[in-house]
């Protein structure tokens, strides 16, 4: 279950990306996050000023 709070979600996503996954796609595939759920996650994180940076493999 993903955190509902955007700041906690940011921390969770970046930790998972850093420690376990080479890309956001790999994370989504493994955690079975579909496109609709990913759009919701991205929307929440953009709402607090963060976007996924594939070069850094994190939300910055």
TrEMBL record:
Top-rank lineage group of the source organism: Bacteria
Pfam families: DUF4250 (PF14056)
InterPro entries for the chain: DUF4250
Name of this protein: DUF4250 domain-containing protein
Native source organism of the sequence: Butyrivibrio hungatei
């Amino acid at each position: 279950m993903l955190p509902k709070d955007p700041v906690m979600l940011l921390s969770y996503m970046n930790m998972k990306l850093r420690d376990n996954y080479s890309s956001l796609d790999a994370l989504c595939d493994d955690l079975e996050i579909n496109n609709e759920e990913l759009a919701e996650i991205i929307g929440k994180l953009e709402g607090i000023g963060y976007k996924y940076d594939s070069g850094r493999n994190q939300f910055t």
